[in-house]
Amino acid sequence: MGKLHFGQAGEERGSMVKDTSSAVLAGDVGGTKTNLAIFDLSSFPGPPIAEATFRSRDYHGVDDILGEFLSRLDFKVERGALGVAGPVLSGRAKVTNLPWIVDERDLMERLGLKSLKLLNDLVAFANAVPVLGPKDLLVLNEGSPDPKGTRAVIAPGTGLGQAFLTWCPEGCRAYPSEGGHADFAPRGKLQVSLLEYLGKSREHVSYEHVASGNGLLEIYRFLKESGYSEPPWLRDEIVALEDPVPLILKHAAGDGPACSICEKTLSVFLSVFGAAAGNVALHFMATGGVYLGGGIPPRITGALQGADFRKAFGTKGRFSGLVEDIPLYVIMNPRSALLGAARYVSLAGLL
To answer: What are the chain's domains?
Structure first.
């Protein structure tokens, strides 16, 4: 069961919103966890007035989670939007890494909502970009931002998500992309060998197979098979973990005993991710900026400011100058997907 938290106005729960018509449900539905929040559009993008996190696998479907969450509120919510991990087609989505089919019409009927919109999780995330402030962003490159230029989001987590935003008078509008599944283009002999290694077990090797949390593990295994030594103490720690990525990143950052295989794993990851981010800048002519989201970038901000990432991002031949002038940010706000879902509701009648 998720623990419900109320905002500063929430000590007396019935008075949290002056007009319940301004309350909206925002959700970020993932294979591991589902985050839900209620925002008051009259004070948006202020902090949520209620929020909770649920372990997705503890429930049969997202309708069970939403029903539990909404039943614990002392006011009625009639509108909402959910970001869902996976493609959304005709209001339906299959949640990545879960046996859930989510249908917005079905959810509206079950929960008594007047409107509910399903969004690809990266579209929800990208929708937050226009309301993020300086405290929500780490600037990697100031560049020369075009206020009306296209903006792009690339987000390595379990997978590699992408989305982009275009300017319109009512506010930037976000669109989905599955560019993370584009063919991995290796740079240099080591990456060519990595491509060959990954190609032994799959027909198609994408950027997501390398520039993601799962990709970090693939890089680590490749380096291990290529002759990089795995210290016995590290092997023992990894065997005991369900997800060894945080451990690899920890030792790559020098937090603990020196570990050359962890350092090299992060170096290769940064080079591939940097190239992918630079490709996104070119694909969308993202003169408004490229935003790095997902679970990994906020944990490796020091490394992202180093040479491996920046060189790979900006090395684009005769277009290197264009890419090097594009603003580059790390999104640090963990509520970004929820903010984006709520912003979508606020703009739904305008876009």
So the answer is: 5-128+335-347 (3.30.420.40), 132-332 (3.40.367.20)
